[in-house]
Amino acid sequence: MIYDLRFTIYDFKPKTENRNSKIQERGFTLIELLIVMSIIAILATIAQPSFKQAAIKAREAVLKEDLFVFRDTIDKYYSDHGKYPPALDELAKEGYIRGVPKDPFTNSTETWQLIYSEAEGEEQGIYDVHSGSDLIAADGTPYNEW
Known about the structure:
By secondary structure, the protein is mainly alpha-helical. The chain has helices spanning 30-81, 88-93, and strands at residues 113-116, 126-130.
């Protein structure tokens, strides 16, 4: 005699259906989606000016750091060679910097304003560097005067 040992699992919850308890699919209504999208749009509108301001301040910080590094490496070059570098690329060739950084406001390495030494009896070289941007900083000073 062979017995069938398989069991069948049944759902023992009684199923009662009436006209108000039909199976409903879950989801969002159109009005709920519109409300959520409006709230997100309002928050984005409020956050946008502060995001732009933060981006400008970050670029200003990068410019200040780049100018500090340029001026420091120009001084080190002068201490080592007794003359100012003839070009910014010379600082990279000599290993003082890895490469000439881009001006954060013009996004180019070619727009730096170079100030050459005016001392008599010396080879003319780069004495100082300024940004090539004509924009005005948050404090009211032009970037090319930093």
